[in-house]
Write a structure and sequence with these properties.
The chain is of the alpha+beta class. It is built from 13 helices and 16 strands. The strands form 4 sheets. Strands 10-11-6-2-1-12 form a 6-stranded mixed β-sheet, sandwiched between helices. It has a 4-stranded antiparallel β-sheet with strand order 13-14-15-16. A hairpin with a 2-residue loop joins strand 15 and strand 16.
């Protein structure tokens, strides 16, 4: 089977999102798969599909540095994207992708690991979606369903500006930011740090495509977007440039921690899970969920699943002795959600932690 390769070269930030997500939106069930490649022509901050931007990113700092902040359509956490990363998106018709995300990540991460191996790097997959070497993070992947397509995104991390990343994230105080800097230095690495000589972009691309061909069983061939895809790319660019899309999570409820009235509280809770952090923003009235937002650097299939889950949980009783976890499990099943690395109990705990806040 042919794998269409759409290599954008050096792409302006908005196009690093618009091209792959536009192609995904235009994809039909019987279309050929696509792999997009690009390097960002200038740096920007990319936030995950399910993140609350206002909680994760220091927008004042980014504005002052001229760093655009864009929301992507796959999950994961906020990250700095720049020209030192070869950014890729696998875009496959749903029929060609594994049914469950825990099988999706290993299949499409394998060619990335194979590429690193060809360069002499013994990288491995840390489930659900990280890539590491000697216990230090070398990259991550994220995925989503978009229309008839399944998209998995990732990058080859040739170098990384840790200082800009540390300054771009919202933190409670300067001492926490110092800890963040040290953590980035201790727990992540780059190809520049691991190799005596960085491969050229052309060599890295060739190695990657050879492993994609051999490990996934496709024939890569250079191509350009079709007319239908070009129209969908233009639509995606307009949507991703719209502040309403960028800030789509976090506006329904204000930042928590308040008594609104007798028996009515607005609070927030967080639960760390193997799949990432889950945040619950809870409006509680007389021991029941009056309003709820769920966000985090997690992956959820299909798109918008966390919002639908939150709406479905409105009205439920919440207390440490309630059946909240089983109610969450039932709602996830009814909505056919796939949340790799996140259990119903994790989500219930995030909500209950919000309830226990003052």
């Amino acid at each position: 089977m042919r794998l269409r390769i759409v290599d954008q070269g050096q792409a302006v930030p908005i196009d690093t999102h618009a091209v792959p997500y536009g192609i995904a939106a235009a994809m039909k069930a019987d279309d050929e798969p696509v792999l997009t490649l690009c390097n960002a022509s200038s740096p920007y901050i990319s936030v995950g599909a399910n993140q609350d931007l206002a909680r994760e990113v220091d927008e004042d700092y980014c504005r002052g540095r001229g760093l655009p902040v864009l929301r992507r359509e796959v999950g994961g956490g906020a990250v700095l994207i720049d020209r030192d990363q070869l950014y890729f998106h696998y875009i496959f018709p749903r029929r060609m992708a594994p049914e469950r995300a825990e099988r999706l990540f290993p299949r499409f991460i394998e060619p990335v690991l194979g590429t690193y191996a060809a360069l002499g790097l013994a990288a491995d997959h840390r489930p659900p979606n990280d890539i590491q070497i000697n216990g230090r993070k070398l990259g991550a992947t994220a995925a989503a369903e978009i229309g008839a397509a399944v998209v998995l995104a990732g990058s080859f991390l040739q170098d990384f500006d840790r200082e800009t990343m540390a300054m771009s994230l919202r933190v409670p105080d300067p001492s926490f930011r110092d800890l963040l800097r040290r953590s980035l230095a201790d727990h992540m690495t780059t190809m520049r740090e691991q190799l005596d000589e960085l491969p050229s972009r052309a060599r890295l691309k060739a190695l990657f495509l050879a492993r994609v061909a051999g490990m996934i069983g496709v024939h890569p061939a250079d191509d350009e977007p079709t007319h239908a895809e070009a129209a969908a790319i233009a639509d995606a660019a307009a949507r991703h440039a719209d502040p309403a899309w960028t800030h789509r999570i976090g506006r329904k409820l204000v930042t928590g921690g308040f008594k609104i009235a007798e028996g009515v509280h607005l609070t927030e809770g967080e639960q760390r899970t193997p799949g990432g952090r889950v945040r619950a923003r809870l409006l509680e009235k007389d021991g029941r969920i009056e309003g709820l937002e769920l966000s985090g650097d997690v992956t959820c299939f299909p798109a918008g699943g966390l919002e639908r889950l939150a709406r479905r949980l409105v009205g439920l009783e919440i207390s440490p002795g309630s059946s909240l976890a089983s109610e969450v499990e039932g709602a996830i099943g009814a909505l056919a959600l796939d949340l790799p690395g996140v259990s119903p109990s994790d989500l219930a705990q995030a909500i209950l932690k919000a309830r226990t806040q003052p």
